[in-house]
Amino acid sequence: LFALAFAAKPTSLYAAGALVLWLLLSREIGNAVLLTVATGIECAAVIGVTALASGGRFITVFRACAVTAGYNLPAGLLRLIFMPAKAMPIDFVFLILGFAGFLLLARKKPISLPVVFFACTAASTALVLGADGTNINHLVDVGVASLLVFAAWLFDGETREREFGAAALLFVTLFATCTTIYSIRHTKEGGGYFDFGYTNSLHEAAAFIGKTDKPILSAHPLLPIMEGQQPYLLDVWMFRIVSDLTPGYEQHLSDAIRQRKFAAIVLEEDLGAKYLPYFLPGQETEDIRQNYKLAKKLPRAYIFLPKGPQDGNATAGQGSVGTP
Fold first, then answer.
1. Would residue 245 be called left, alpha or beta, if left means φ above 0 and alpha means ψ between -120 and 50 degrees?
2. CB 129 within 8 A of CB 76
3. Bridging pattern class, strands 292-298 and 216-218
4. Which of 75, 108, 131, 197 has minimal CB crowding within 10 Å?
């Protein structure tokens, strides 16, 4: 199970780490070593198969993520608190309950598995959030850990009434589901992670652009695929990270934008969005502003088309754009 979790999300190894640490604290050294070796072998197999299937690109991407251009541990600690407080208020309340349950349970059972699991999850989440460009999706793990440690405290042997514990846990669980309702009712198009605007926006964008022989540069790789093309970029965020680490890496994209070789450029936000530089290098953002104009705005798609002579700037270049 740990290897499957690692295959879906490499940072999920915190769970295996928590269990190994708990076994060590419980003086079950043999089981801790056995779990470490077994999980290590399985994770190595996942890496090997994925690297082979991707032609080695997985290793390049993994290395780029590991040595991301910007990292600040104190910022990660602050983001663990302020990101949910600003963007997910209900989850923030749930996080507070998790910390409360952790502190109360740790006083009586400092090396219990729920306590160790929550501590490892919170620490690993803070470490991940220290990386430049990480977002609120990484808070899912600590949210689950909050539920577990809070439930462990409620059903601790010293809880006076079992019925009270069950009722409190049910209330908190239902309260946590209010995140979805809050997001749908109070954020644009259902919010970033409960967004039902993607599908409609992509279909409308494809219909607006129409069939074209020129490539489409899209922040969402599904749009070019819908147009029968091969995506020029699969992951805009990773492109920005690699560009920061490799001077000149993004030059081919800047040249293509300046020569207006793309039939359209489709972003999820306008060029003025404060966090756009996290996902697109600053030079490319300026190149789009100089050579393309916003032609249509959809809930999750901002479509930019090449400027014509009447819009000023240089005449669009000619030629084809290859896949990077």
1. alpha
2. yes
3. unpaired
4. 108
